[in-house]
Amino acid sequence: MFINRKYKDSVFTDLFGSDRDGKKNFLELYNALSGSDYKLEEVTLERKVIEQSLYKTYNNDVSWEINGKLIVLVEHQSTINENMPFRCLEYVTRIYEGLMPIKNRYSERVYKIPNPEFYVVYVGKKELPTKQELKLSDAFYKKDGSNLELVVKVRNCTNPDILPIEKDCAILKQYSQFIQIVENTYNKKHPKSSFKKAIETAISKGILTGYLDRKSREVFNMLCAKYDYKMDIAVKKEEAFAEGKEVANAEAAKKMLLKNYSISDIAEITGLSTEQIIELKEKTL
Known about the structure:
Blueprint: E1 8-9, H1 11-18, H2 22-34, E2 45-47, E3 58-59, E4 61-66, E5 69-76, H3 84-99, E6 115-122, E7 131-135, E8 151-156, H4 170-185, H5 191-204, H6 209-258, H7 263-270, H8 274-284
Parallel strand pairs: 1-3, 5-6, 6-8
Antiparallel strand pairs: 2-4, 4-5, 7-8
Helix pairs in contact: 1-2, 4-5, 5-6, 6-7, 6-8
């Protein structure tokens, strides 16, 4: 591990990383995603944790080094971010920085680093293909065969009965079922009571029973952190939209002032106040 985190795990990160059974759960999930057949007693597994996750409020990424491979798993529960390859590039660079001693970076001999693999486990409401790939090169101005590439494999695991994986994975299926229960039970007016109900419902149905029996309080806190984050992001998006709209209206008002529109007409068209337009007029003309 690298540096202690100051943010809260998501259930995904805890289940496949921090929990006492995280190593076993991760290996089962990775075998299912990749089609491999690693046995816990036959592999070397080391968790890789860096100071800042792909999200600052709560941690929903899992990184393990397994037999010379660096596996980065990211969970998504709303929409897939098309910039995920770039964000994974940032993320894996930080991990490599922690793995390679500074003195070895200037050595003539090659310092070996683990091969990376990137997966997104999507659990959300938006309809997506069961499998897709996001590529860093899609963000380049021109696709000219540049040698820098990073591929993220996206697996839509929203439906626990149709998992786009190579092998059966009971822990992933139960996780998907649990998230379904949480989403279906969630009440914006009474979030905390809805989280408690979701946990109780899952246990009663035999879903993640051992895990939830041991960590119901921790899971409750993780859900609170995650949904607080989702609300915070939604508010920030609204604020950013409003701010962008106001800037655009101000620019439009400046152009209309230069064309001698009346202040009343500009106010009606842009929605800006008379005082705002007068202030713009003083600065513009």
